[in-house]
Every structure is written in structure tokens, then in C-alpha cells.
What we know:
By secondary structure, the chain is an all-alpha fold. Helices cover 80% and strands 0% of the residues. It has one domain.
Amino acid sequence: MAISIxxxxxxxxxxVVLVRSGRLRIWPAIAAVLFGFFLASTGMAPxxxxxxxxxxxxxxxxxx
Length: 64
């Protein structure tokens, strides 16, 4: 659960920066948020969660 909260915060910060910098207008940003919201309620949500979990585990195992 901690990784999903961190991902949400990171994506929200990126979205706010893009909207404020003028690189992303408000309507496409709203469309992207709504797309993500509705995608989360589909059958693809578990596969996406597994993929993100696998990526997070892989990144955490990298020793620099």
C-alpha cells in the first residue's frame, strides 16, 4: 500500500508541475485523471498493479 500512495503523490506532483508550467492544459489533465480513475475500475487494474509492484521490487533490488 505504501508504494501506491507514493506513486499517487509522485504522479500528482508531476501533473501539477505540467499544468502550472503550461506544458499541459487543464482539460487534457482532467481527461487523463478521469481515464486513470475509470481504468482502475476495469479488469485491467489487477494486471497494472502487479506490473507496478514488479517494477518497484526490481528498482528496490538495484544496489548502486
